[in-house]
What we know:
The complex is a heterodimer of chains A (190) and B (109). Helix content of chain A is 24%, strand content 18%. Chain A has four helices and eleven strands, in the order E-E-H-E-H-H-H-E-E-E-E-E-E-E-E. The radius of gyration of chain B is 13 Å and the shape is globular. The interface between A and B is medium-sized, with 28 and 30 residues.
Amino acid sequence: MSPRIKIPRRVINAPVIQGFIPTTTPQEDISQEQVIIHLEEYEAIRLCDYEGLTQIEASECMGVSRPTFTRIYSQALRKVATAFVEGRPLHFMGGAGFFDTDWYHCQDCGCYFSSVTRPLPPDECPVCGSQQVKGLGEQFMMEDADNNLNTTCPKCGSRGSLERLKGNRPGHWCKKCGKKFPSNPKHEKL
Amino acid sequence: MKVAIASSGNDKQALLSEVLARSPWVVFYDTLTGALEFFPNPYSHNENEVGHEILQVLISRNVSLVISRRVGKKLKQWLDARQIQLAIFTEHLTIGQVLELLGRKSSKV
Ligand SMILES: [Zn+2]
Ligand SMILES: [Zn+2]
């Protein structure tokens, strides 16, 4: 396994918006001048200045050391200040935080797996190491409250697109991509 | 990487089991050293949905990947929070086949 140096930090609350645009910035300038705030930087500001936690409490919440937290937090403030003073758009992006993980499908060994690298996609299958992996979204393979599986298509990833095959044939098909699943992988309770 | 595999029996011909918490055996496999252990799951008859006892065993053994045939939302959230990965096979694989797939990965390094 390749060593993974960047340790994902825990971000519990995703931003409710994608970013901010200064009121005077013309639409065409937005992409060039934006300041990128990573999710862990957003979380640092949220915990300290919105929730009112001390830096020690906030660092524990995010699962990082106090010096690391201070570095993330000061970087975050610096970015906000830059956007304010220079009148640049702010954009929330990437970072090494994670939420409830998405599901992925390995096209080599056929396993479905969760990833711990969110928001970055996984670079390989945790079982066979193949890089032929495809994202399926957060809800795939999850049991609903009423114990019915929701129906995400394993081929194209569309949600709610699987329907029973016509007639009395066992299996399902996808309304979006047309793929038939005679022995439906969702049929059985996972 | 340390892996926990839900197993229906105590040899490599045994099938991958449905859920980890109720599987009669748990195979612990270390992809670095190749160490393999068939661990009889003393909690397999517990009614507890998530199986906290066996999960504590995973933590104490530093497991970072769990392999089984199905998973519920609660267990997934529990594993996500501890950054333990899950891999689900919907086919009926034997433990030997799963180990062979894991071996492909370590041979790539
Ligand atoms: Zn694979
Ligand atoms: Zn489809």
